[in-house]
Specification:
The complex is a heterodimer of chains A (about 120) and B (about 400).
Chain A lengths: L1 E10 L7 H21 L2 E6 L7 E6 L2 E6 L7 E11 L2 H15 L3 E5 L7
Antiparallel strand pairs in A: 1-5, 1-6, 2-5, 3-4
Chain B lengths: L4 H23 L2 H22 L5 H23 L2 H9 L14 H9 L6 H12 L4 H7 L4 H18 L11 H21 L5 H21 L4 H14 L25 H17 L4 H14 L8 H14 L3 H15 L1 H9 L7 H13 L3 H12 L5 H16 L1
Helix pairs in contact in B: 1-2, 1-3, 1-5, 2-3, 3-4, 5-6, 6-8, 6-9, 7-8, 9-10, 9-11, 10-11, 11-12, 11-13, 12-13, 13-14, 14-15, 15-16, 16-17, 17-18, 18-19
The chains are: A alpha+beta (about 120), B mainly alpha (about 400).
């Protein structure tokens, strides 16, 4: 089995979904989480507060500098993620397809470099 | 028997895909499979001229390649990296019978190469290299790219297959339609790249057409029950059957109505038409089959004037229901002009949002010319000419524009 990171991207400046749509997304994500857990593919998952709440800590020349975040100066920011285990990319992509429908946002699938301990 | 390097090269091209596909299944790794097969061919170059070609060259290459790769992996395992290599070997220590070609090996490899997680350009390069047995410099030349760029593209794609775990598997029924469409698109793109020959080096690029037909044949052999696969092969054959007539002395591009039909390849036409008839019997139409059927109708006409345009228009109507793109609509308008006159054709063309597509302006120009609107036709030819860099197409447009003022 391999592990994959499924990252949900939020695009700053896009129109906010209606409260009903947001509620629906929460419900759909809960249902998907239950499905991933039941299948045994679940490793970890979580949703994040908006990028404005981020802080960047960086070591430089022996000092550590703390600044207001986020680190990446782009409109596309991580909104939440899943870590799942899957036999291959197709299995991971099948979960990602469900994930993008549930949270109504694009999902990036990326393999972890190390195989998990079995 | 004298056996020149050219003949071994021929075996290489024919057997490479099959051998690599089998060894990818065996070792679970594309690089190991490719290195082993290349090494086995090097052995063949040494031995075959004296010992003769073995009765089953593909099986000989596959066995030799497997044995070489196992030796190599054992040597490496004894030096370092014991765990990984030992695992690889013992995991695959199958009885020798299992090395024999499995019908699906190449099919699995095609679907791996054309996986949607890879960029289209990488899909094309990998398919030509792994299934077509083309070397990276040949692929780079065919696509007019520096060798280094093509090599990086292939290396990166192979790394992604490995790291991301792109499977080596024929997709299940649910995914198959989408995944097969990607495979067909890759083969069609290879063909069009060769067909359009956007520079003077047309001979090399023409080989891309042969390569695409070869890949389509392999796919048709492996998936004989997929009508769109047969449709694609038929479309490529019927289009390619006219290649000799597409040029004439002093004329780098001759379009269908003006072609010398005696120069069409009858054998390819017959094969293409036979495939179209097979598709019709199945009655599961799709875009490639319908385009092939249109090609078949053209091939049936002894002269351009005898073309059954009503049937072609009906086929374009059908194509519009399953692939309603502006380019299809433009081609439909050409057929409509033949059936209902240039005014009706022009009305259909003018509604299309294809301002940056040179055939749109070339088609408009031709219809305006037929309507006697010479000044507008000249402007449309100019617009078309500004949109193509292809010398053959430019020459064609210049001729048309000159003919206009001569009228």
């Amino acid at each position: 089995m391999k592990q994959y990171l499924l990252s949900v991207y939020m695009v700053e400046g896009e129109p906010q979904p209606s409260p009903e749509a947001t509620q629906q997304a929460y419900k759909d994500v809960d249902a998907l989480n239950a499905e991933i857990q039941a299948s045994g593919a679940w490793v970890f998952a979580g949703g994040l507060h908006p990028p404005a709440t981020a802080t960047v800590v960086r070591a430089s020349d022996g000092d550590v500098v703390t600044t207001d975040g986020p680190f990446a100066e782009t409109k596309e920011q991580l909104g939440g993620f899943w870590v799942i285990s899957a036999a291959d990319l197709d299995e991971a992509l099948a979960w990602a397809a469900k994930a993008t429908r549930a949270c109504a946002a694009p999902v990036e699938v990326r393999p972890f470099a190390d195989e998990p301990e079995n | 028997m004298a056996l020149g390097p050219g003949e071994i090269e021929g075996y290489f091209r024919r057997e490479y895909g099959r051998c690599v596909a089998t060894l990818v299944r065996f070792f679970g790794d594309i690089d190991i499979a490719e290195e082993a097969v290349q090494e086995a061919f090097a052995v063949a170059v040494d031995r075959w001229p004296a010992a003769g070609v073995p009765p089953n060259p593909g099986a000989w290459i596959t066995t030799t390649a497997r044995n070489r790769a196992i030796d190599q992996l054992r040597r490496e395992a004894s030096r370092h990296d014991r765990h990984a290599q030992a695992d690889l070997l013992y995991g695959h220590d199958d009885p020798p019978g299992k090395l024999g070609p499995v019908r699906d090996d190449r099919l699995r490899l095609i679907f791996t190469c054309c996986h949607p997680a890879l960029a289209r350009t990488a899909q094309v390069a990998l398919t030509l290299r792994l299934l077509g047995g083309l070397q990276t410099p040949q692929i780079a030349r065919a696509f007019l790219l520096p060798e280094k760029t093509m090599a990086q593209r292939i290396v990166r794609a192979k790394k992604k297959i490995k790291a991301a775990g792109i499977p080596y598997r024929v997709p299940g029924d649910a995914e198959l339609p989408d995944r097969l469409a990607a495979v067909l698109a890759v083969i069609y793109l290879v063909f069009n790249e060769g067909h359009t020959a956007s520079d003077g080096d047309s001979l090399i690029r023409l080989n891309l057409c042969d390569e695409a037909i070869r890949l389509a044949r392999v796919l048709a052999e492996l998936m004989p029950d997929e009508p769109e696969v047969l449709g694609l092969l038929a479309l490529l054959l019927l289009t390619h059957s006219r290649r000799a007539a597409r040029t004439a002395p002093g004329r780098p591009l001759v379009l269908l109505p003006d072609q010398d039909r005696s120069r069409w390849d009858r054998e390819m036409i017959e094969e293409g038409q036979g495939l179209v008839r097979r598709c019709l019997r199945r009655n599961q139409p799709g875009p490639y089959q319908i385009q092939a059927a249109i090609g078949a109708v053209h091939s049936d006409a002894p002269t351009a004037a005898q073309t059954d345009w009503a049937q072609i228009l009906a086929l374009y109507d059908q194509l519009m229901t399953c692939a309603p793109t502006p380019v299809v609509a433009l081609n439909r308008a050409v057929a409509l002009a033949e059936v209902a006159g240039p005014q009706a054709g022009l009305a259909a063309v003018d509604g299309l949002d294809l301002g940056s597509y040179y055939p749109f302006h070339a088609t408009r120009a031709d219809l305006l010319r037929r309507l006697g609107r010479g000044a507008e036709a000249a402007r449309a030819y100019d617009a078309a000419r500004a949109l193509t860099a292809n010398p053959a197409e430019r020459d064609f447009l210049d001729r048309r524009r000159r003919a206009l003022t001569a009228d």
